[in-house]
Amino acid sequence: MYDWLGIVLAGLSAIAVLVALGMVFLYAPREATMGDVQRIFYFHVASAWVGFFAFFVTFVAGIGYLVQGKRRWDILALSSVEIGLTFITMAVVTGSLWAKPAWGAYWTWE
Fold it and tell me: Do 72 and 98 have their domain in common?
């Protein structure tokens, strides 16, 4: 029924990502100490927020499934956990990319 809506939203999302990417590299000023490495934070923080929100949606959908037993809650939980895993992985990778020039190591266990 709303097949066109998914196509339109995917197109708008792609345009928004390209605009954000352009703004990060063309509009955002260079940080005095870290240089261009600081620009990774624009992706790192946003990815972490989206990932944690997706896991919260998974939590709510899991409770909804346990209470109501409807399959739509289970489908929502599965979709949301896949999105959350993708974005949290991006947050970990971008955090490591920032940490290497800042601390001299990709990961420390302090």
Answer: yes
The burial of 40, by beta-carbon neighbours within 10 Å (0-12 exposed, 13-18 middle, 19 or more buried), is given as: buried
Residue 33: name the closest of 98, 107, 109 by CA.
Answer: 98
Q: Indicate yes or no: pTM above 0.85.
A: no
* Tally of structural domains, the chain: 2
HSE, side-chain direction, 13 A CA sphere, residue 108:
9
Q: Which tokens go with 19? A: 């605009």
Q: In whole angstroms, give the CA distance from residue 15 to residue 10.
A: 9
> Within a domain: residue 17?
yes
Which range of residues forms the domain containing residue 66? 40-110
Query: Does the residue 71 lie in any domain?
Result: yes
* Rounded mean pLDDT for each run of 10 residues along the chain, 110 residues in total: 78 88 81 80 91 97 96 95 95 91 82
Residue 101 belongs to a domain: yes
